Every structure is written in structure tokens, then in C-alpha cells.
Amino acid sequence: MSTPVRVVAFVTALAAAFAVAWGGGRLVGPLDTEPVAAHGGMAGVSAHDEQADAAGRGAADGHGAHAAGVAAASGLTARADGLTLALADRTLRPGRQRLDFRVLTSSGRPLLDYTREHEKDLHLIVVRRDLTGFQHVHPTLDRSTGTWSARVRLTPGAWRVVADFTPEDRDGTTLADDVAVAGTFAPADLPVDDRTATLRTDQGTYTVTLTGDTAPGAPTVLTTRIELDGEPVTDLEPYLGAHVHLVAIRAGDLGYLHVHPEEGAPGPGIDFATGFPEPATYRLFLDFRHRGTVRTVAFTVASGAARGDATTEHPTQHPSQHPSQHEEDDHDH
């Protein structure tokens, strides 16, 4: 083959290879590797969330597969599935105040369209890292800015902010990040595993029991039974589309478990479908509405461990010990 012919053949082959590579690049598309920048002065994503997003994307949205069909804990990162929980402030003062945040898409724009779950577009759980001070609130959305706002009551310490929501035409997502509250912080020991909670109110004393298999790695049904002054409560009032709601949070990393109430009578017994993904200690917070007021009680569950491993007795619960807020506070936003 002459030299000119060999040159022409080489150029033709090079052009063909470039065309294939260019076409492949078009098919793959650009990779969004940069952290999502917060807009309008909103806080960005912390460094540990970058690692958590890469290591546990499936667990972060609560839909990752787990042993025996039990979903992994979610709420372990502020970033998952192209969405970011962007807090307006990472440090707050103690007391009752407004908490602002946005849910940002991968383009940096605020997410505005949601599928309503349990009568709300977004459920916000705020809990101190020692698992006290639990609050379940429902923010309001300013669609002009994409900012969610909620009124919360915070004491000194580190608090976990958990946003549970379902974007329109997508699966549910749980994102979480921390805020620090200034002041003298005295961490509380986690109560022992005790399946009975007592709540004294001006209407009497509620006794709530929790039964069911709490072994790790398998689906289970938990049953709560509510009594008032020793008498079964059979007239629970609807709250967020159900008679009772249960939130489970894992001690340590504050992983969030999805717990689903099952249809049934308005008391005294309510069933919940859930599962504990691995041996750990969990704190369960139960919300119910009775006689016009939403009440909250809490249990400690040691899944896969000997009961009574915690260091303190289970205290009698009182609203002042476990401040909680619910939908009645939404008008304050």
C-alpha cells in the first residue's frame, strides 16, 4: 500500500473512533459531580454527607433492600437521589423559634411539587441527638422562594432535623442534617428497654403498652394499647389520616425507620408494620389524639440485645420531659 493511501486510511479510522467516542459521551451524559450549591444564602451540604451519599444511597431514601425484606434505616444523609436538604442556619439559639430550609434538586432549584402523604406534603421530625425533645411538626411552604418554615422549641445541644416527603411522580425520600443549639448541654441517658409508658395529664393518666417481636432482620407487627386511668381508650380521634402514628429512630446514627399504621378500630389496640434492620437500640415515639389533644409517649427497644442494657430507669413521661409539637402548631408558622 502506498504512503498516501496509508495516511488516508489512518485518518478515516481515527475519525470513526472519535465519532463513536463522542456518541458514547452523548449517551452517558454529563456527570453532576459537584455538590449542589445552596441558593439565596441557604446552607450547603456538610463533608460527612458527601461520604454518606456515596456509601449508602440506597439506605438514605429508605427504599434500599435489606435482609429478609426489611428496609434499611433512612435519614442518614442530607443528600440522596439528586435531592438536598439545605438548612437556612446550622446554628440556632435556644427557645421557641422558626426553622427554615429548602429541598433542592440537582440543578439547585427548590423542589415545589410533592405527593401528599398522611394529609401533609412534608413531615418534619426534630429530635435532640440524645433522643430527647422529640417534635413532629408540619412546615408551610413559601412557593415563591421554595422555603419551608416550622416553629420548633430547642434546648442546647445537637439536634437532628429529618424531612420525610414524597416528590411528585417519585418514591418517598428521607433527608436529614444537624443543627447546633448554643448553651450548657447536659446529655440525658437513654432509658432502659421498657414496653410501658405512662403519661400524666389534666385529663388523667394514660398508660400505653407496646407488644410484638422486635428481633432484627425480619418484618414484624407492633401493637400499641392505650388506656386512660385503667380503662381502654376506644375513641381515638383521627390524626394525619390515621388513629396513631409511630416514629422509630436508631440510637447512635439516628437512622429513621418507616413505620406504617394498619387500619383498624380507634383503640385501644393499634397495629404497625415495620422491621428492625439490625441489632441496635431504638427510640420509638407514639403520637395519638384523644379528646382534642395530641399526646406523645416514647419507648426504648433493644432489638437483638438483652433488655435492660441502658443505664437508667425508664422515667415517668410528662410533656415537660419530652416537649413535642404537632399540627396544632402549624398556624404559628
The CATH architecture name of the largest domain reads Sandwich
Distance between the termini: 82 Å
Radius of gyration: 24 Å
Oligomer: single chain
Helical segment count: 3
The gross shape turns out to be globular
Name the average pLDDT.
78
Q: Which structural class best describes the helix and strand composition?
A: mainly beta
Weakly predicted, low-confidence segments: 2-68, 306-323, 327-333
Under CATH, the topology of the largest domain can be stated as Immunoglobulin-like
Q: Could you explain how this protein is built, in words?
A:
The chain is mostly beta strands. The protein has 2 domains: 47-181, Immunoglobulin-like, CATH 2.60.40.1080; 196-332, Sandwich (Immunoglobulin-like). Helices cover 12% and strands 37% of the residues. The chain contains 3 helices and 20 strands. The strands form 4 sheets. Strands 11, 12, 13, 14, 17 and 18 form a 6-stranded antiparallel beta sheet that branches. A 5-stranded antiparallel beta sheet has the order 1-2-4-8-7. It starts with a helix and ends in a 30-residue tail after the last strand.
Features:
37% strand, Immunoglobulin-like, disordered C terminus, disordered N terminus, globular, single chain, 333 residues, 12% helix, 2 domains, mainly beta, five-stranded antiparallel sheet
Q: What is the topology?
A:
Elements: H1 3-28, H2 47-55, H3 57-60, E1 79-80, E2 83-87, E3 91-92, E4 95-104, E5 122-128, E6 135-137, E7 140-142, E8 147-154, E9 157-165, E10 173-181, E11 196-201, E12 204-211, E13 219-228, E14 231-232, E15 244-250, E16 256-257, E17 260-261, E18 269-275, E19 280-290, E20 293-303
Parallel strand pairs: 3-10
Antiparallel strand pairs: 1-2, 2-4, 4-8, 5-6, 5-9, 7-8, 9-10, 11-12, 12-13, 13-14, 13-18, 15-16, 15-19, 17-18, 19-20
